[in-house]
Amino acid sequence: MRLTTLLAASVLASGALPAIAQDALQDLTVLPPAQNGYKPTKTEWGEPDISGGWPIDHLNGRTPLMRDPKDGNRIYLTDEEFAERTEQVAILAKRYESEDSQGKMGIGHWAEVAAANRRTSWITSPSDGRLPPYAEEGKRLSGQMRSTWRRGQAFDWPTDFDSWDRCISRGLPASMFPVMYNNGIRIFQSPGVVAIQLEMVHETRIIPTDGSPSLPRQIDMWLGESRGHWEDGNTLVVETTNFKPGPSITNIGTTGSPPENDTPLSPQARLVERFTMTGPDSIVYDMTWTDPVVFTAPWSARLDWVRDDDFSIFEYACTEGNEQIRNYINVSRQERAQGMESSQ
């Protein structure tokens, strides 16, 4: 039922995108700037009202975070490439029905897929649509990260698992990108505060917009310390620092991410996001990640959100952190005791 709703919403959402893509098709390397002339309604206390349901499941249509090198600097797919992606999505969308007909329950009952779109990647800068190279310290930190996605790794203690393995946090900016399921996002507002509820790992970002001072840098959190302000009458700008090291800032659940959940962050990491209302039911989400300790340059991404106030957020009843951690450790120790290579 949810999959049917998702595909229907995707069709509606994709109908809002061709106007942008059509203009850009004259030059496949150009991403049009967000139109900021729209004036949203105001809250009772005078701030732009961006509250509501903004699920990003309509973006879960095989667009990768990082661009395939063969696509070079192209922001958009060609007509032929778009037709190929559309065919791939149609095949994936049939997995649920196919499994049911065979009396099976597999990835088709878990992973959701939306209509294809023309974007070659969510990353818009650098121009090749890929994460910048690591700095030397970034390479070292990446090598120290642990996750169940790392092949051949031994498990002896909870610190051998990342925060997503342990059902603690998917982290930022990963939580703002579409994943295989649980893509619900809701925005709530009250005087001086914006809250962003995330369906995946049931987290809520609290963002003061009243000019209150930030917390000391010694206090770190999984989703960092955020402060927001309003620009141009329709854009919420959020700056986040004080990140707690641990989560991979990109992860395997986002198509085209590094394959082992091993993209680290440092205490100098900084995330700047812009939420620009371009219409009553549309937001352009831009983000830039800067971490000079890990990366040789900043990187940016953009997603186009579509309102869906009827989207129902499901409870993210994550129990793996309570049971599977112990199971992984027991199996890993047994395999090593028997001289076997890790099966993970």
Question: How would you sum up this structure, described in words?
Answer:
The protein starts with a helix and ends in a 7-residue tail after the last helix. With 344 residues, it is α+β, with helices and mostly antiparallel strands. It has helices spanning 2-16, 18-24, 79-93, 95-101, 136-144, 320-337; strands at residues 52-53, 123-125, 185-190, 193-198, 203-208, 225-231, 235-241, 270-279, 282-290, 299-306. Mean pLDDT is 88; it is low at 1-24. The chain has one domain (2-337). The radius of gyration is 21 Å and the shape is globular. The chain has a six-stranded antiparallel β-sheet, with no helix packed on it. A four-stranded antiparallel β-sheet has the order 1-3-4-5, with no helix packed on it.
Brief write-up:
With 344 residues, the chain is α+β, with helices and mostly antiparallel strands. It has six helices and ten strands, in the order ααβααβαββββββββα. A hairpin with a 3-residue loop joins β6 and β7 (235-241).
Helix/strand layout:
Blueprint: H1 2-16, H2 18-24, E1 52-53, H3 79-93, H4 95-101, E2 123-125, H5 136-144, E3 185-190, E4 193-198, E5 203-208, E6 225-231, E7 235-241, E8 270-279, E9 282-290, E10 299-306, H6 320-337
Antiparallel strand pairs: 1-3, 2-10, 3-4, 4-5, 6-7, 7-8, 8-9, 9-10
Signal peptide: 1-21
Region (Disordered): 245-264
Keywords: Signal
